Structures are given as structure tokens and as C-alpha cells.
């Protein structure tokens, strides 16, 4: 049986270096003579991605539950493409995935220092947030780039988009911590990388996790949160 390629996800807070590291890994994989494709969520090019883009740039307002489902739908738009790349032997590197979806949506429902107006709708919990992403293609490896928001902020400052605020990033980090505790197991499919180190130290550590997967896997593509 021919092997399929691995599905590798990079997660992390804003400015943790995800896009920079994806590019470095892409080059190293390409130099090793293998096929590699990079994807990124949100994919702002699709019709749903355009709605998300408008929301993130504060050009439209949507209820938190609605925007959560749009982010998930945006992943489902690409789900069969991801599986087909992997089965064709193309390594998929993915910049943010379902874990960002959960972390940001749950973080928005956590209590803040400034009291927010009461809502008629229930807060977003981890199980509620996970549900629409269940059965999506499961990553073979998720690298979580961990960085303190105050260190990330120094890297050129946060931008102007809706979520680019230090207080929210702190809450997002705590939810990512919870997701990490749930995901970490013997199988080493979720690993935490100290993204506060130098660019080369971070990429060296990442390569140590990526390289053993490059020759492909015998198993078929897994499904998120189905067990
Ligand atoms: N979101 C969501 O709510 N729900 C979902 O389901 C999904 C996403 C998928 C848009 O994301 C928002 O969507 C995001 C989460 C939410 N909101 N926030 N915040 P995006 O992907 O469009 O934006 P982003 O990836 O978070 O931001 P970013 O600025 O692209 O961050 P990055 O990719 O991690 O960082 P970078 O561009 O690689 O590096 C930033 C700078 O730091 C740059 O100048 C680098 O040269 C520098 N850098 C990187 N690494 C280092 C090291 N090691 N040392 C020193 N300097 C470094
Ligand atoms: Mg980025």
C-alpha cells in the first residue's frame, strides 16, 4: 500500500511566528524533494471567508455563535481538498485550524475585567465550540507556538483587527492551555514549542518533530474528536 502524506498544523497566538515558521518548513521540505502545500485559516478568499474577513476588520457585526460556525464552515469548505492532497502524497502545512476556532470563541465568553452587557444567548463552552469541527480531517501533528502576549506584542505590535487586543490574547492563551491538556497524550500529536526563542531555535525544534513524518503514514487520515 502506498503511504499518504502527513497533515501538519501550526497553532498559536497572534504574532507567535506561525506564518514565518510555515514558510521555513515549506522551504526545507521542498529542498528535500517532497511535495508540500500550505493552507491558512481563515481562508479569506471563499464566500464564507469574505464574511469572516469583513467581521475581523470590524466592517460587519455578527453574533459570536454565528461567527464561530462561519469559521468552522470555512474549514469544511476545504476538508475534502485536504484529504485529497494527503492521498496524493502532498504534505499539508496548515496555518491555524479548529483549535484556534475553539480558543478564540470560548475566550470571548470568559469573564473580562470590564463588565460586558448581558446576553440572552448562552456563553460558548468548549463542548459547544468543538461540535461543528468534529469529523474534520485530524492533524497528524499540531505544533502549538506558545508565547506570552506581552512578548508577542513587542514584535511589531498587534494590528487593528477585532481580536488583536492583549486582554483577549491572554484569555485565548488560557483556553489553548486547556485544549493542550486535553490533546496531549502518548502519541505526541500535540506539542508545545517555546515561540519566545530565536527564529532559528524555534525552527530547529519544529524540524525535529516534522522530519520523522516526512516519509508518510500507512494509516488513513483521521477524524477530529470522533473517539
Ligand atoms: N480565528 C478565529 O477566531 N477562529 C478560527 O477558527 C480561526 C481564526 C482559524 C485572523 O488570523 C484571526 O482569526 C486571528 C484568530 C482568528 N485573530 N487574532 N488575533 P490570522 O491568521 O489572519 O492572523 P494571525 O496569524 O494571528 O496573525 P499573524 O500576525 O499572522 O501572526 P503569526 O503568523 O503568528 O506571526 P508572523 O507573521 O510569523 O510573525 C509576526 C512578526 O514576528 C514578524 O515580524 C516576524 O518576523 C516576527 N517573528 C516571528 N518569529 C519570531 C522570533 N522567533 N523572534 C523574533 N521575531 C519573530
Ligand atoms: Mg500569520
UniProtKB/TrEMBL annotation:
One Pfam family of this chain: Thymidylate_kin
Origin: domain of life: Eukaryota
E.C. code: 2.7.4.9
GO molecular function: ATP binding; dTMP kinase activity; nucleoside diphosphate kinase activity
GO biological process: dTDP biosynthetic process; dTTP biosynthetic process; dUDP biosynthetic process
Sequence ranges assigned to domain Thymidylate kinase-like in this UniProt record: 10-206
Transmembrane segments annotated in the record for this chain: none
EC primary class: transferase
Record keywords, A-Z: ATP-binding, Kinase, Nucleotide biosynthesis, Nucleotide-binding, Transferase
Cellular component GO terms held in the UniProt record: cytosol; nucleus
InterPro entries listed in its UniProt record: P-loop_NTPase, Thymidylate_kin-like_dom, Thymidylate_kin_CS, Thymidylate_kinase
PROSITE patterns named among the record's database cross-references: THYMIDYLATE_KINASE
Pathway membership: Pyrimidine metabolism; dTTP biosynthesis
UniProt record similarity statement: Belongs to the thymidylate kinase family.
PANTHER family: THYMIDYLATE KINASE
Name used for this protein in its record: Thymidylate kinase
Organism whose genome encodes this protein: Collybiopsis confluens
Taxonomic lineage: Eukaryota, Fungi, Dikarya, Basidiomycota, Agaricomycotina
